[in-house]
Structure formats: C-alpha cells, structure tokens
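tool=predict chain=A
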Amino acid sequence: MPLPAMTLHHKLPLATLGPLLALLAACIFFSTQNERFLSGGNLSLVLQQVMVVGVIAIGQTLVILTAGIDLSCGMVMALGGIVMSKFATELGLPPALAIACGLGVTALFGLVNGLLVTKVRLPAFIVTLGTMNIAFAITQLYSGSQTVTGLPDALTVLGDTFGIGSTQVGYGTVLMLLLYGLVWFALRETAAGRHVYAVGNNREATRLTGISPDRVLLGVYVLAGLFYGVASLLSVARTGVGDPNAGQTENLDAITAVVLGGTSLFGGRGWIVGSLIGALIVGVFRNGLTLMGVSSIYQILVTGILVILAVATDQLSHRSAR
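tool=predict ok
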C-alpha cells in the first residue's frame, strides 16, 4: 500500500499546476488593474493576511487526505487564542506556558475528534460539527464574550515584521512557510506521511498490510489540533488581542484553500503546497478586489464560485479515475 502512495507523490506537482496557473493569472490580472498590487509591501501584506488560514489549512489538508473533514478548526483556533490570552493576562502565567496551554487545548479537541471518528465510528462531518459548536460555546463562556487586551509582548512577537530591502516581512509569515516545508517533507519522505495517503486511498487495504488506520487517523486529528493552536498564536499576534469572535469563517476558508489547492475530498490525493497556493489564491483575489474598490460581498461571491469549480473538477476527476 505505501508504494502507490509514493507513486502519487511524483504525479501531484502536475495536479498542482492548475492552481498555480490560476494564481499567476490572478496576479497578472490585478497588476493591470492597480499598480500597487505587485509592490513588495502589498505582496507581503497578502502573506500576512493568509498566514492564519494558511496554517489552519495544513491541519485541514492532513484530515482531508484521510477522506475526512474538520469543521471545528476555526472555533478550536479561537478557543486556543482565548486560552493563551487569558492564561497570560489573568492567571499571570509565563507567556511560554500560556502558549503551551493553548496548544494543549487545541490538541485535546483534535484527540476528541479522532477518538469519536475511530472508536465510536461517527462520521467526521457530524463529529466536527458538534465539536465546532462546543468550542464556540466554551470560548464565549470563558471569555464572557469580551476581547482580551493587554497581552505580553511574547504573545504578539510573531505579528512583528523585519525588513528585506524596502519590504517588511512578518515573522508569522516565515513560520507559516517553514511549517509548510516541514509537512511537505514529512508527507513525501517519511513512512508516517505515506501512511496518511494510504489510509485515504483505501482504509481496508491499508489495514491488511499491517498498518493501523485508527492509529494514523488519531495522529492526524491530534496533529491538526496542534496546527490550529499555532494558528491561534498567529491570530493573537496579528490582531494584538484575544478575540472570542475569531474563527467565524476560518473553517470554510481553510477548506476552500485545501480544495482550491487540488487536494481531493475523496482522500488519498493532494499536495500540501497546493493548500498554500489555494490560500494565496483566496488572499490575492480579496486583496486585488479591495484595491479595485470592489465591495466585500462580491469577494465572498467570487470565493464561492472558485470553490464550487474546484469541487466540480475534483468530482469529475474522481469519476474518470474509477
């Protein structure tokens, strides 16, 4: 079973060619509409705007590669941010420990999702729909629906920037790119990464080769939770506050990025870098349309059209492969 998964790795860059061409086409179009679009400062801003969704999309990609889905990611991310913020400000914990607690909470939600999917055999859609609402309720109750301010500098340092020439680049952007590189390597070069693809391709066949699908799935959901925790920290760093209303749209944005990037909702097919490209496509469209003065409602409309086209392409590809 691992062998077919490895074969997929060599084909996936071709599958990502479409999203990459779409990204390039969008950049060319918007550069003709506004001369500011291709400036270093604006492109850096796009990366900073997508870094939270981009990191959430890493965890979402891992889940979707196993033919699952995680609707709870945005709300779990918001809860992680509130835990980090309140533990650091109200409980007076050292920032590093507060961050660790936030990561622990998001990983715990991943563990719960994984256990319900693997042990209770509930559909991932239903499980994560339920934990999404649970995370939202806990976030609102624990925060009192109030924004947490006065955060220590250590919680917001990833929102700072450094100069490369005349362009300011965010530390959070660098972290996002490093995480993508790390996960790309793990999925491509390690046995654990190949097992993720194998489970998505054929769970029963994977089991017959001696690989435990439940163990793989449990690990995937816990890892996804950890990535949502990192996204929590990036969200807090970017806004400078713990916002209980964060994460309202990030779950759909992350799924959109993954699908636009070419990862199949049927599992077993996808390339992690494609999810980054998908997040950038959404970010570029929103940024470009904003520079053109287009209303935000049309930006949502365009995003909806893009995701429907991507899913339709995936469906047609899956049918032709059967």
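Strands lie at 161-164, 167-170. The first helix runs from residue 2 to 15.
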